[in-house]
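Summary of Year 1 activities. Much of the first year was spent building the evaluation harness for sequence design. The harness presents a backbone, in tokenized form, and records the residue chosen at every position. We chose the following record to illustrate the format because it has been used consistently in internal testing since the harness was completed.
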């Protein structure tokens, strides 16, 4: 696992000890950032269920202005902080030890990209997406939510203001891109 491009290109990242997290593969991460392209430059990024911090760190390396990492596992928090230090990207990062749903119950601040990669088969991706759908304040008008799931987890959700705009499958990982329905944005 490494930083693919940008100011920290090639820098290896540490994994969280144990088997409690499933880091994004370099192949899937590279595909994600190829899709996002220049949109990441100057973006504010929210990395939920952050694990190793790999996605937020990649965004910072590619000139995102801020990345907020939300994770409740203390070993993952330590790993994120170590990876930020190794890449020298900690100045634009905020690491928050919290339950994602408790964090999302706060007063929101809009992000351009919200990345969600929760533990598999616990329904947390859909619960997170529903929380974001009901609280418009977390996502910028032109922003997007990207969910990383195992393909068999995908199910149709009743959403009011977000819609599935694209999905891409890479082996055992699927990236689902959600954006606001234009007429539903307040």
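For this record, the design step produced the sequence shown next.
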């Amino acid at each position: 696992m490494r930083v693919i491009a940008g100011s920290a290109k090639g820098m290896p990242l540490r994994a969280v000890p144990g088997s409690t997290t499933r880091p994004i593969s370099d192949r899937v991460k590279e595909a994600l950032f190829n899709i996002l392209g220049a949109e990441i430059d100057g973006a504010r990024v929210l990395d939920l269920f952050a694990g190793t911090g790999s996605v937020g760190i990649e965004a910072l390396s590619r000139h995102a202005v801020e990345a907020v990492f939300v994770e409740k596992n203390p070993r993952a928090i330590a790993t994120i902080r170590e990876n930020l230090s190794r890449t020298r990207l900690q100045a634009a990062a905020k690491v928050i030890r919290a339950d994602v749903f408790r964090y999302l119950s706060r007063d929101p601040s809009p992000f351009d990209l919200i990345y969600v990669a929760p533990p598999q088969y616990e329904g947390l991706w859909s619960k997170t997406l529903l929380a974001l759908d009901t609280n418009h304040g977390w996502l910028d008008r032109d922003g997007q939510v990207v969910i990383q799931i195992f393909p068999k987890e995908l199910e149709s959700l009743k959403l009011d203001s977000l819609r599935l705009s694209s999905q891409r499958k890479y082996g055992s990982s699927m990236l689902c891109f959600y954006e606001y329905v234009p007429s539903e944005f307040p």
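The mean pLDDT is 91. Quantitative recovery figures across the full test set are reported in Table 2.
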